Amino acid sequence: MHRARKRFGQNFLQDNGIIYSIVALINPSADAHVIEIGPGLGALTLPLLENLDHLDLLEIDRDLVAFWNEKNLKGLTVIEGDALKFDFLAWAQNRAGKKGLCKVVGNLPYNISSPLLFHLVSAANSIDEQVFMLQAEVVERMVAKEGSSDFSRLSVMLQARYDMDLVLEVPPEAFDPQPKVNSAVVRMIPRRDFTLSDIQWSALEKVVAAAFSQRRKMLRTNLQAFADRLNLTEIELKARAQDISVDRYIEWAKVLAA
Ligand code: SAM
Fold it and tell me: Which positions bind S-adenosyl-L-methionine (predicted)?
């Protein structure tokens, strides 16, 4: 019997209704290239595998890797590794050109969700879709619109790169052990109209970090260092970071990187 390890964020899904809803949202066609981050004991893995010719698993916990290797299931490849260090771009490019969509899915360990989402951005060009279970509060920030108090650095950066929807809310009772927080499933589709170069992306990171550095302060203060290059309107100077649209941040990044 596997005992859940807190340090690996192990909360195993046990509600069959929720499990099948998530698998239906992932909607795997047999020829899709899917990698599941953190299969744990297989709540999502086994129903996914029923629909797929092939499934890759990426798991950090050595005992769980051994558990999957012993099962020796047809169509399953088990990779022992840390998702924060895994080269998702190489994985996706390896599949590119073959029929079928590239999807990254998982009920993620909540303690690493933000760094993992940013790590995945570097592979977004080659990935068709991501479906993740995360802490509900994080998903709410990811999808928040400008003007909302949840609109944050995470919202701007991820909305610049992905179209995202909160697609399912999941209560703690769906897991064993139960997490202390509510969860939600988010679907992320890389934007096809994304055109930022690496330099422009870095400029976006800088200007967004500066804008949100002191949430309550006006942009006049937070963006002082960039003021002579950005043509901020009077209204923008008095606005706060959460009032500016993602598109406007992108425009600023392009100016700063030029
Ligand atoms: N998918 C299973 C389920 O829904 O019941 C388990 C989900 S559990 C929340 C998170 C899983 O991610 C665990 O299996 C854990 O060992 C694994 N994990 C934690 N940190 C990881 C990392 N850095 N890289 C890969 N897997 C990780």
Answer: 11, 13, 38, 59, 82, 107
